[in-house]
Amino acid sequence: MDVMPTLLDLVGAPVPACVEGSSLKGEITGEHPLERDYLHGEHSGSREQSNQYVVTKHDKYVWFTQTGVERYFDLDADPREEHDLSRDPAHAERAAELRAILIDELRGREEGHVANDELVVGRTPRAVLARD
User: Fold this and answer.
1) Which of 17, 82, 93, 125 stands 20 to 30 A from 74 (CA)?
2) In whole angstroms, what is the distance from residue 74 CA to residue 78 CA?
3) Distance CA 19, CA 128 (A)
4) Whole-prediction pTM value?
5) What is the Cβ-side half-sphere exposure of residue 67, based on CA atoms within 13 angstroms?
6) Using CA atoms, how far apart are residues 25 and 33, in angstroms rounded to an integer?
7) Parallel, antiparallel or unpaired: strands 114-115 and 51-55
8) What distance in Å separates the CA atoms of residue 88 and residue 93, rounded to the nearest whole number?
9) CA-to-CA distance for 68 and 119, rounded, in angstroms?
10) Beta strand 51-55 with 59-64: parallel, antiparallel or unpaired?
11) Which of 75, 61, 56, 45 minimizes the C-alpha distance to 106?
């Protein structure tokens, strides 16, 4: 999501307001690093592996849209994401915080992944969303 705004910024072209990503020019040049609290992403290539995720500098929460399976990783201790901590009570509160961020990101989207402030399993993933 940051590729287009970065390329436009590097060549001095305006970045359209509708673009969700951010330019990484400051990161590249060292002028000013990009700071974000988190990044929301999704993989919808295959229905079975369709997932939504929230990643920060320190951790990552993944929700599989068709099964409801959740994963949580401490990226400081486990940068290769080899140890799922989603069932570890010591990490339950933080995983819930990231889940709440994901719910906010997905609220109102056409797939219907959120109802009554909860994630809804089994909605059909869409590779391209309709535009108003």
Assistant:
1) 125
2) 6
3) 15
4) 0.79
5) 12
6) 9
7) unpaired
8) 10
9) 8
10) antiparallel
11) 61
Cβ pair 38, 103 in contact under 8 A: no
61 touches 70 (CB < 8 A): yes
Residue 100 vs residues 13, 19, 77, 118: alpha-carbon distances, Å = 36, 24, 23, 9
Q: Which amino acid is at 108?
A: G
Confidence at 24, pLDDT banded by 50, 70, 90: confident
CA separation for the pair 106, 42 (Å, rounded):
11
For residue range 68-115, list pLDDT tens digits in order. 999 999 999 999 999 999 999 999 999 999 999 999 999 998 899 999
Q: Give the whole-angstrom CA distance, residue 93 versus residue 71.
A: 13
Residue 31, classed as helix, strand or coil, is coil
